[in-house]
Every structure is written in C-alpha cells, then in structure tokens.
Amino acid sequence: MSYSIAEAARRSGLSIDTLRYYERIRLLEPPARDAAGRRAYSDGDLAWLSFLTKLRTTGMPIRRMREYASLRAQGAASAGRRKAILVEQRQAVTERIAELQSCLDVLDYKITNYERIERGMVDIAAPRERGVPA
Predict the structure, then answer these.
(1) Cβ–Cβ under 8 Å, residues 36 and 77
(2) What's residue 105's pLDDT?
(3) Most buried residue among 4, 21, 57, 85 by CB atoms closer than 10 A?
(4) Using alpha carbons only, what angle is made at residue 94 by residues 88 and 100, rounded to the nearest 5 degrees?
C-alpha cells in the first residue's frame, strides 16, 4: 500500500512538518515517489514511524534516535548496538516509571487523607509525622 504525506501524517499521528523533519535529519529514509514526484509512504515506513513515536514517548533524545536509525541501515551487523540502545532506554523508562509511581503513591495518600478529612475521620497531625506535607 502507498500513502500520501497527508495520509501518512494522519495515520502516524505526526504532522507533515515532522515527517519532513524526520526525513531531513535522516530518522526516516526518503520515501518512494509516485509518478507525479510526490512522497509515497509504505506500510513499512508507517511501522518505522510508529516505532520512532514510541521511542520519543519514552523520552529518547533525537540524537540517540538518529544513532539507532543509522545503525538500522547497517542491518544485522549492528544488532548488538541497537539492542544495547534499547536496553539503556528500557532502564531509563523503568526508572521514570518508579519515580512516577512514587509520585502517584503520594497523590493517592493525599487524596485518601482528604477524603477522611471530609468525613471527619482523620487527625490532621498524622501526615506531618509521615513526612508528607498537609
């Protein structure tokens, strides 16, 4: 299947400008062109864009994504380094999830505390004793 840049943008959730930017910085190989010279994105291009979007969502810097894309072009010979990049990113994501879980735990505690206050069932001094501001 072949998709225009507008359709590729719609399907990928990225803007047309982002698609052109990714092509310019070599995150995305230049797509094929149709008979009129317009970009024609393939299903493979869309799958790659989906993966790039996942990497960005994990907080991977563009420079690391570019390194990964460059290694991808080298094929199987670069599999070890590509795996290492993903393992490093997975560790960063795991750490961020733990950080966010800690924040969520505090929010849950505070919400529960306020629910108790609303029901008149809590000692206001208790949160300070736990090191959580009131």
Answers:
(1) no
(2) 97
(3) 85
(4) 140
